[in-house]
Amino acid sequence: MSNATNKAKVAVIGLGNIGTAVVTNLVKGNRPVIIAGHQPEQAKVLAQKLGNLVQPMEVQAAIKEADIIVFAVWFNVIKELLGKYATELQGKIIVDPSNPIAPDDKGGFVKIIGEKESAGQVLSALLPKGAKLAKALGTLGVASLANAAYKKPVPAVLFYATDDTGINGAIEQLIHDSGFEPVRVGGIDQSIRIEVFGDLHEFGALGKVVTAVEAKEKV
């Protein structure tokens, strides 16, 4: 059993496909998780399904309680939440798994910010006082995020990027506890590489789930 009680408290905000997959993986890794969404009843139902490691809360209470906040919501919603909860987010670690995309009405997706911009860089300019940002948990599609977790004998990789190397340990532990091998690609200026269409994203030039050995050839 992992020493879960000594780890940073994690809250996952947003219980869509990505958020639910992240929470499910963390529970498999014996990591307690606070969950919240715009529909509180949905959080209660998911908590009942996944067991005692999951604690449902209102969004504001979840952000106050946790040390690490995973915003598993659309990119534009994260921008709104950073402003709405700026006071509560001061000094926290913010994890951004988002991609700056929207449906193109043709069954695909289109990027909604500049071609050379990344969601990570845009959000880093909006951080509340003292908050630290990591781009993580979003380099795979939801199916791979669910199916490739805890892959044996060689774990699959989730890439991450952050300017604050002091939080590397916390982010890598979070990724480990979600069933993947963490690989840092650099600072937030590299986050465009691990977002959709990037060279290290499953839905970009990488095109697949990779192991750490395969990842090192790409980074």
What does this 3D model show about the protein?
The protein has about 220 residues and is α/β, with parallel strands linked by helices. Helices cover about 30% and strands about 20% of the residues. It is built from nine helices and ten strands. The chain has an eight-stranded mixed β-sheet with strand order 3-2-1-4-5-8-9-10, sandwiched between helices. Helix 2 (about 40-50) links the parallel strand 2 and strand 3 (about 55). It is globular and about 40 Å long. The protein starts with 9 loop residues before the first strand and ends with a helix. About 45% of the residues are buried.
Give a concise summary.
This protein is of the alpha/beta class and 219 residues long. Helix content is 32%, strand content 19%. The protein has an 8-stranded mixed β-sheet, sandwiched between helices. A two-stranded antiparallel ribbon has the order 6-7.
**Low-confidence sequence ranges:** none
Class of secondary structure makeup: alpha/beta
Number of helices: 9
Kindly estimate the percentage of residues that lie in beta strands according to DSSP: 15-25%
Number of strands: 10
Instruction: Tell me the distance between the termini.
Output: 32 Å
Q: What is the CA-atom radius of gyration, in angstroms?
A: 16 Å
Order of helices and strands: EHEHEHEHHEEEHEHEHEH
Spatial strand sequence of the major β-sheet: 3-2-1-4-5-8-9-10
